Amino acid sequence: MTLRLATERDLPRILEIYAPYVEEETVSFEYETPTLAAFEKRFRSIASRLPWLVAEKEGKVVGYAYLAPAFVRAGYAWDVDLSIYVERESRRGGIGRMLEEKISALARELGYVRIYSVISAENGSSLAFHRRMGYREAARFARCGFKFGRWIDVVWYEKELGGGSAPAFPLAFGGEL
After folding, report:
1. Distance (Å, rounded) from C-alpha 10 to C-alpha 45?
2. Is the CATH code 3.40.630.30 the one for domain 2-160?
3. Contact 67, 78 (CB under 8 A)
4. Which residues of the chain, if any, have pLDDT below 50?
5. E strands of 19-149, at which residues?
6. Would you state the pLDDT for residue 163?
7. Domain segments of the chain: what residues?
């Protein structure tokens, strides 16, 4: 298994991994899988500042993770939001752990203090994964999301990365692992 930075060439495969989470599960609250053009725009807007990683097994992308700004105001500059997706056939194989550990290390190196993850309360495996990775429940929003004809609670998890008082603004991601 290797981890590397994602490129635009990876986006069709990343969308293949993401689509079932959108179309069949309440993991994502998107109703339709984004088009490749829309996903390219999303990738460019985030990857210019924060890392996107892919996990490859025998030359095939089997999972990905990325950080995005958690909030837009300047006072939240030290907080990021984590997303991790692993293809169904490769779940429970340690790929999510590898991606989370690497992206957390990158976030820490860049000067971020906290990582958030927004999780559907129906996604028990993700909640358990995040607890194992050192996240704690920070907030629960009852009936916050609506998908497949029902209201679903949303849980915000957070992981402290460290950092002291009066930190410098986080560094821009330089595009290297």
Report:
1. 16
2. yes
3. no
4. none
5. 52-57, 60-69, 79-86, 114-120, 136-147
6. 67
7. 2-160
Contact in structure between 65 and 83 (CB atoms under 8 Å): yes
pLDDT in the model for residue 80: 97
Structure token pair of residue 100:
């989370």
d(CA 19, CA 148): 15
> CA dist 51 to 3, 69, 72, 168, Å?
12, 11, 18, 19
Tokens at 34, concatenated = 């984004």
Q: What is the CA radius of gyration of the chain?
A: 16
Q: In this structure, how many other beta carbons lie within 10 angstroms of the beta carbon of residue 123? A: 18
3-state secondary structure of 10: helix
Distances (CA, A) of 135 to 10, 100, 130, 155, 157: 28, 11, 5, 12, 6
Helix/strand/coil for 114: strand
pLDDT in tens, 120-170: 999 999 999 999 999 999 999 999 999 999 999 999 999 999 865 656 778
pTM above 0.85, yes or no: yes
